[in-house]
Design the sequence.
């Protein structure tokens, strides 16, 4: 798995005559719509042929990803946030098409962790140069109960915080997620009872956080620096339930400083598959998108499954 700071292996690819862009105009409180004008000007300047497909509702990006992949499109650029990227990736994985398109990501959301992990320079100009210079990498995906994720999957506090963040207005970036995390800690009275099975081992306990990380960034924060999306493994992060609210809030301080791994109640497990049974209700957070509670989850790494423009 690729860390944000890792060097990517470059591959040579055959270029498609047309780049298909999936635009979520409402992403990032319409930031993506504003960024689209800059993108189109740059594409025209570099003589890159393109066609735009605009989303109109939740789930539309997933449908477009599936349709375009099924039609044999070889290049897709996604202009939106991590939620839009998540939908498009799942649409492509759902597609019966035999040719998987190469994906490029242009940041336009409130959090753009994937774009920042794939490219130190997230500018539109760099995106165009990656296409023109055929710079690509192949990365792992995570899969759980039929859905894919590229950043991370979470249960417990990080899922609750994602839900609360959807209702916070006027806050952006890491401040929005930190505020949501604060409210989750203050208003959550009990932990989440879970059982984990991996590599012939079993853990059971009451936890604040379960997170399975594929990349080092999640929720605009650098949470798991050792995660790298091209090693065929994922990092399972478990944090014991902390009944003292003010001690629990120390999670947020460490997360903001990129030092979550220093928390004394944290353990980390590296594995390629994991079975989790949860006895306390929690929605499932995949790349910041929420899925309904299930009692049992089967997690696995799908090695080097996704080809992306990066450099």
Sequence:
């Amino acid at each position: 798995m690729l860390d944000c700071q890792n060097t990517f292996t470059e591959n040579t690819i055959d270029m498609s005559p047309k780049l298909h862009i999936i635009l979520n105009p409402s992403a990032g409180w319409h930031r993506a719509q504003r960024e689209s004008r800059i993108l189109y000007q740059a594409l025209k300047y570099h003589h890159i042929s393109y066609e735009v497909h605009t989303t109109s509702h939740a789930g539309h990006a997933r449908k477009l990803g599936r349709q375009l992949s099924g039609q044999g499109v070889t290049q897709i650029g996604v202009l939106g946030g991590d939620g839009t990227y998540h939908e498009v990736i799942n649409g492509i994985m759902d597609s019966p098409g035999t040719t998987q398109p190469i994906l490029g990501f242009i940041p336009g959301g409130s959090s753009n962790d994937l774009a920042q992990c794939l490219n130190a320079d997230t500018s539109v100009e760099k995106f165009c140069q990656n296409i023109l210079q055929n710079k690509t990498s192949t990365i792992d995906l995570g899969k759980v109960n039929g859905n894919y994720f590229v950043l991370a999957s979470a249960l417990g506090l990080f899922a609750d915080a994602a839900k609360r963040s959807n209702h916070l207005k006027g806050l952006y970036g890491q401040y929005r997620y930190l505020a949501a995390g604060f409210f989750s800690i203050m208003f959550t009275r009990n932990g989440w009872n879970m059982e984990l099975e991996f590599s012939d081992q079993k853990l059971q306990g009451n936890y604040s956080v379960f997170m399975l990380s594929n990349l080092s960034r999640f929720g605009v924060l650098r949470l798991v620096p050792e995660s790298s999306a091209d090693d065929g493994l994922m990092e399972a992060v478990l944090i014991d339930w902390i009944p003292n609210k003010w001690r629990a809030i120390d999670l947020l301080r460490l997360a903001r400083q990129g030092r979550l791994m220093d928390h004394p109640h944290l353990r980390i497990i590296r594995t390629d598959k994991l079975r989790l049974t949860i006895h306390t209700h929690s929605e499932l957070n995949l790349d910041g998108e929420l899925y309904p509670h299930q009692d049992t989850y089967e997690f696995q790494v799908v090695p080097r499954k996704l080809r992306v423009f990066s450099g």
Remarks:
- The radius of gyration is 19 Å.
- The helical segments are 27-45, 60-70, 82-94, 113-118, 124-132, 157-165, 173-187, 245-256.
